[in-house]
Amino acid sequence: MSTASRLGPVPVVPAYQHEQLVAKLGIEILRYEPGLVIGTMPVRGNRQPVGILHGGANAVLSETLGSLAALLYAGPGQTAVGLDLSCTHHRWVSAGTVTGVCRPLHEGRTSASYEIVISDSSGRRTCTTRLTCAIGGTPGRRRSFDFPPVEI
Fold first, then answer.
1. Which residues, 6+ apart, have CB-to-CB distance to 101 below 8 Å?
2. What is the pLDDT of residue 142?
C-alpha cells in the first residue's frame, strides 16, 4: 500500500508527502512482511526516449522495495539507508506493468543485502538488482516488527 502519507507501513515525513518519487513513478506496494516485499510499477510514464522502460525506473523500484525490506528488518527506532545498488537489465519492456519481488540475501547487525527480481506482465525476468543497506539506530531493537503483514 502506497499513499502520500505512507509507504507500506513506513510513515512519510509530512513536509515531504508531495515530493515522493514513488508516487511520481506510480509504484504500488502490494505486499510487505519480513523477508518479502512486492511492488509494481507501470511502464507508461516511465519510458526512455526510444519508448521502453527507463533503466533508472527499475533502479527506483528496486531501491524502494529493498529499502522498505531493510526498514522492516531493522524495526522501530532503527534506520536503513542504501549503500550500494547494482542493476542488470536482461530485456526491455515496452508496455504494461513490471513487478518487483524483494528477498533478503543477508540481514545482519549493521547491514542488509537484498535481491530484487523485476518481471514483465508475462512473468519474464527483465532486471535483477542487488541492494545493500546500512542499518543503524538504537542497539538491541533491530529485529522487532510491529507492523502486521499486509497483502493487497
1. 36, 37, 38, 65, 116, 117, 118, 119
2. 39
- Record the pTM: 0.88
H or E stretch at 55: helix 55-74
Are 105 and 84 in contact, with CB atoms under 8 Å apart?
no
Neighbouring C-beta atoms of residue 95, cutoff 10 Å: 13
For 26, 65, 92, 126, 133, the CA distances from 31, given in Å and listed in that order, are 16, 10, 25, 20, 20
DSSP 85-145: EEEEE-S---SSEEEEEEEEEEE-SSEEEEEEEEE-TTS-EEEEEEEEEEEEESTT-TT--
* Catalytic positions, written as ranges: 63
Per-residue pLDDT at 151: 56
